[in-house]
Amino acid sequence: MKKIVLSLALLALGIQNTNAQITKVDDVKKSLETTNKDTIAWAHGGVFNIGMNEGFLHNWSAGGELASVTINGIFSGHLDRLHYRLIWSNNLDINYGLTYAYSTSFIPHKTDDRIDFTSKYGIRIDSSKRFYFTGLFNFKSQFTKGYDYTKTNFRSSPTSDLFSPAYFTTAIGVEFRKGSDVSVFFSPLAGRLTVADKKYTTITPQGAFGIPVGKTQYYQFGAYASARDQFSLGKKTIYKARLDIYSNYLAKDTKDDSGKVIKRDNPANISFLFDNLISWKITKSLNITFGATFIYDNNFPYIKTYTDPKTNLPTNKDDPGINMGWLQIKQIFALGLEKKF
Description:
Blueprint: H1 2-21, H2 26-32, E1 40-56, E2 67-83, E3 86-101, E4 109-124, E5 131-141, E6 166-178, E7 182-195, H3 198-201, E8 217-232, E9 237-248, E10 254-255, E11 261-263, E12 271-281, E13 286-296, E14 307-308, E15 313-314, E16 327-340
Antiparallel strand pairs: 1-2, 1-16, 2-3, 3-4, 4-5, 5-6, 6-7, 7-8, 8-9, 9-12, 10-11, 12-13, 13-16, 14-15
């Protein structure tokens, strides 16, 4: 916990230092909102939010968690370098959250953990100053170990960790840009590498993260598209959206030793990530942040079986909860201190 708090503090300090080191030229920023100006300049922007929720009950007739604390941090920012016909753009999204509860002896449970970095370098190819021939690099991973908290001794069997998995995507394609807030990138030539430690790919007979059992990497080659947009919903509210789509040309059915198909796949079975973030400024330094992320990936199937709470044994019945199929959903809400830059 001390390491996480220290990391967030250093991140906040780094943001302030960035403000001191980079000169934001107002006329350049204003022109970037509507067009891509022929100039040499840096443009940057983003939001950093850190918040905490706390609750305490004593002799409460309605019942509930005796005591709980939730701490979360959200960072979303971009840094662009313009040099006449060339542009180098970088986007970084970091999320981390922990919750402590009396019923779990205040052992921290992770509620969010994300590292997502994208860097693009492009050269303008048309007179409208909108289209670029662009190379892209994207990296995704997490900070700390992940667990299945439904297990009694969950700490003895982590399911993921830093760089397990880690996703690396490289692509060459064409990008449409309007200022620093709107970008649409498409590549018919995109490679994606997934890596993980072998101990995580041997937990189940199916492997993990798309990586075959006992292996440490999984390579894909296909088409990739990414669209980003940011705009104001009034004077105090900003909405950021992102949509990533990937089709693996090499996708094919997976069969066991007997030839039976255990996982169906093909290039038309695309994966996607749809990211949404709304930041509402209440006061100069206090804001509300709401985020929702939707992911579909054939390498992360929906597990139909669940543990029967009466027998504590796995069953073949469907989970009686809400069944959203193979769709992964994450929702966050934070009320806390904000730093914009």
